[in-house]
Amino acid sequence: MGLFQKLAHFLGVKKREVNVLVVGLNNSGKSTVVNKFKNEEERVAEIVPTVGFSVERFQNQNLAFTAFDMSGHGRYRDLWEHYYKDCNGIIFVIDSSDRLRLVVVKEELDLLLQHPDICNKKIPILFFANKMDSKEALSSVKIAAALGLDKIMDKPWHISASNALTGANIKNIQGIGMRRPRAGINPRTFQFCFGSSYS
Amino acid sequence: MSSFKRDKKEEEDGGGNPFQNIEKTTVLQEARTFNETTVNPRKCTPILTKLLYLLNQGETLSVKEATDVFFAMTKLFQSRDVILRRMVYLGIKELSSIADDVIIVTSSLTKDMTGKEDLYRAAAIRALCSITDATMLQAIERYMKQAIVDRNPAVSSAALVSSLHLTKLAPDVVKRWVNEAQEAVNSDNIMVQYHALGLLYHIRKTDRLAVTKLVAKLTRMSLKSPYAVCMLIRITAKLLEEEDSGNDSPYFDFIESCLRHKSEMVVYEAAQAIVNLKRTTSRELAPAISVLQLFCGSPKPTLRFAAVRTLNQVAISHPAAVTACNLDLENLITDSNRSIATLAITTLLMKQIATFVSEISDEFKVVVVQAIRALALKFPRKHSVLMNFLSAMLRDEGGLEYKASIADTIITIIEDNPEAKETGLAHLCEFIEDCEHVSLAVRILHLLGKEGPKTKQPSRYIRFIYNRVILECPSIRAAAVYAMAQFGAACPDLLENIQVLLARCQMDSDDEVRDRATFYSNILNTQDKSLYNNYILDSLQVSIPSLERSLKEYIQGETNEPFDIKIVPLVPIPSPEEREVKHKSEGMLISQGPIRPVPVSREENFTEKLSLIPGIQELGPLFRSSEVVELTETETEYFVRCIKHCYTNHVVLQFDCLNTLSDQLLENVRVQLDPSEGYTITDEIPCPKLPFNETGTTYVILKFPENDLPNSIGTFGAVLKFIVKDCDPTTGLPDTDEGYDDEYILEDLEITLGDQIQRISKVNWGAAWEEAASSYIEMEDTYSLSSMNTLDEAVKNIIQFLGLQPAEQN
């Protein structure tokens, strides 16, 4: 990194860039969530099932996000791991009304957490218990319990109920943004962090 | 340090290929930069370039390598750099066939192809279609349909062409896009229109009716794009070929109207189409030719080249039509025309080959020689250069096969190109001066004897030939004597000298040489033209194996009567392009000449078979056996085929009958004929028994009408007659002894002139013809040839009809 860039970083002139991976089962609302992160004018009117992945860019607070919106279809879930290596954070979207497949969600989450590219990294994970407007929706607490999120000790995480259609609880989540790294901690890992579980 | 040195050296080389020293492993290593969080387009683009370079140089990646690099590449989608993105598209296309899970980029590509950035859209469509498989196609169908009718011509074209490629993958899905393609045909953009027509035709090409409709519609509406018109001309020409109606159809009118199109390309395409139509007559050809003639004078070299090439094709099928353009063509030869330039380069190349030809093995030399032969046939005007080259090769060291192939090539050139004859013969003469292969020398001497007398200065060859008589082994000497005799017979002014030389040969130590010399010298002494023809100029017509057999039989039997060579059947002439004579002239059959083994002809086979049958033996020698004629359909109860054997005064009809009914035993099978006027049935030989699935033969012997050749053409009604005995299908034994008569009507049998005419090879056709005229009745007949369109076709038909073969290239 050149001297000028370092200076710019220090002064906060240049925006910090982070890569996030958006994963979750199909039809959980990943692309809709990502769409809501974007500015009003850049949003797509119609969301179709993603095939493979799509790259989206948006800004939130002082941070430039590059989101790899992965396809949640069973056929493509194996391909998530190709993008684990260099992501700075994970957004995991769960359909909170789909009680039946909650076990599948757990299975996929465990696979993700055990992956060598993920398990040793202290990357933050943000869970969206999406579709909270649905009648059958489970509360975020129940989902956290069902997925055993309390067992995640080595990574900062946060769960939030959301409604991606209206955008409720999406952009205004506390803590999606820049945090000053504290002394003694690898700055890169903690440049980006979520919510109150880590402060 | 070493790398630094290498860099320096590269710099010194200056302007070399910057990608020369790259390696696969290094590039794959470098491709890991793609995974960095922030993509640096300036770093990634050259790496992608290197990767593409390697792939296009034929470097292969394993599936794992390809998949890894492919997924690394997918991360570049986060960059917004246009150049990098387009490089990624190219990379995707290259790797799509090797890497796994390439469908991962589907959404990214669909986003790009429907996005706002026009620079991405067309390329994204192409990349998308390369990664799509049949199952995924449904998902992108909607986007493809939109793209086909997109307002941006590049996008539309890309979608159309990609669809064309996708038809290989999922023809049924693409078929549903026909409406969009139809709409694209109406586009204003020339490329879109062309591509749309291409796709539309491809979708419909299996459906003839749809194609007809398409053509009918488009020929009426004037297409804006010249490319599309060219395509339409091709489609129309194809329709015309398939359709059997004459050339006055609206399709032809359309093609002809295109001759007046304002685009040169279209005009050329139309002319080319007319030329290539199989049924084109010279009248229809005329406007096309005049257009091509105009092109010959065009300042554009491509047009001139195209015109000359097409005219070349015309010259083969319709030689007369091109004569009008001869002047223009001759101008072009002096012109710095591209085709001539190409030719010059090929001939230059030949000189290059000469330097390394001595270093390669014989087998490769043979290949080179064959290439030269092809070249010589293609460019007859260049014969002198090629000939010199060949003779130089001839003088080099080499095995028999190699030398023989060179000699073959020279002979082919001589036969093909009369201008090259003299030089070719001169080279061959030089060659036999020190030829160590006896068989080759004999062949060349034979050729000299045949071709030498027809040249302007036959005398110069005699020295070469006589040198052989002095220097070589007996078989070459004998061949040389024969060659000299041919000169003596064909060139009266040389006769005296030849006689002197032959007289010297009569003192030869070898019996064969002496015999030949005496024989020829005596014949030449008689000064009798017909003897010349019979014994010197013509070669032996009879088949060698059967001549040998007949002579053996003759020697074993009574030798009171002289041997009659007429009983030996004639050799079928291998290629119909050779010489012919119309009438069989029995007296001219016998002649001496170099002999070579020939396969046993059909006539010989039949002679043997027929001579076993009583009643046929007396008819004399078999003259000609016809092709097999089928008198029933193959799948009927009784399958009957007929072969016509012609004798001097009789015709024997051989009926091969096959019984296909398993529950019947046929007895006393015979064919009852209803002969036409003049014919008399002299004998019938029935087939006594014909069980299931066996072929039996029955014969009918007929006498030709006396001295009435024209009336010998006739049509006979034929009925198969037999006694049926029902039998057990498994054992084949008849149930009862009592049978009943039954008959089965066969198709009419025709005896044509062709059955009665034998092809005979005559070297000196003119002389033989005149001679024949004195001893035979010349028969003239006019045949209506109006149904034929081309010269070739007419000749072919006559040959088929009369069983003749063309005389001496007349």
Automatic annotation (TrEMBL), chain A:
It holds the Pfam family Arf. It is a peripheral membrane protein. GO terms for cellular component: axoneme; ciliary membrane. The keyword Cytoplasm applies. Its main location: membrane. Keywords: Cell membrane, Cell projection, Cilium biogenesis/degradation, Cytoplasm, Cytoskeleton, GTP-binding, Lipoprotein, Magnesium, Membrane, Metal-binding, Myristate, Nucleotide-binding. GO terms for biological process: cell projection organization; establishment of localization in cell; system development; vesicle-mediated transport. GTP binds at G24, L25, N26, N27, S28, G29, K30, S31, G72, N130, K131, M132, D133. Belongs to the small GTPase superfamily. Arf family. This is ADP-ribosylation factor-like protein 6.
From TrEMBL, chain B:
Residues 1-11 have a biased composition (Basic and acidic residues). It is found in: Cytoplasm; Golgi apparatus membrane; Cytoplasmic vesicle, COPI-coated vesicle membrane; Endoplasmic reticulum. The keyword Manganese does not apply. It is a peripheral membrane protein. Residues 605-752 form the Coatomer gamma subunit appendage Ig-like subdomain domain. Its main location: cytoplasm. InterPro entries: ARM-like (IPR011989), ARM-type_fold (IPR016024), Clathrin/coatomer_adapt-like_N (IPR002553), Clathrin_app_Ig-like_sf (IPR013041), Coatomer/calthrin_app_sub_C (IPR009028), Coatomer_g_Cpla (IPR032154), Coatomer_gsu (IPR017106), Coatomer_gsu_app_Ig-like_dom (IPR013040). Keywords: Cytoplasm, Cytoplasmic vesicle, Endoplasmic reticulum, ER-Golgi transport, Golgi apparatus, Membrane, Protein transport, Repeat, Transport. GO terms for cellular component: COPI vesicle coat; endoplasmic reticulum; endoplasmic reticulum-Golgi intermediate compartment; Golgi membrane. Residues 1-22 are annotated as: Disordered. GO terms for biological process: endoplasmic reticulum to Golgi vesicle-mediated transport; intra-Golgi vesicle-mediated transport; intracellular protein transport; organelle transport along microtubule; protein secretion. SUPFAM superfamilies: ARM repeat (SSF48371), Clathrin adaptor appendage domain (SSF49348), Subdomain of clathrin and coatomer appendage domain (SSF55711). GO terms for molecular function: structural molecule activity. Belongs to the COPG family. The coatomer is a cytosolic protein complex that binds to dilysine motifs and reversibly associates with Golgi non-clathrin-coated vesicles, which further mediate biosynthetic protein transport from the ER, via the Golgi up to the trans Golgi network. Coatomer complex is required for budding from Golgi membranes, and is essential for the retrograde Golgi-to-ER transport of dilysine-tagged proteins. Oligomeric complex. PANTHER family: COATOMER SUBUNIT GAMMA (PTHR10261), COATOMER SUBUNIT GAMMA-2 (PTHR10261:SF0). This is Coatomer subunit gamma. It comes from Rhamnusium bicolor. The lineage of its organism: Eukaryota, Metazoa, Ecdysozoa, Arthropoda, Hexapoda.
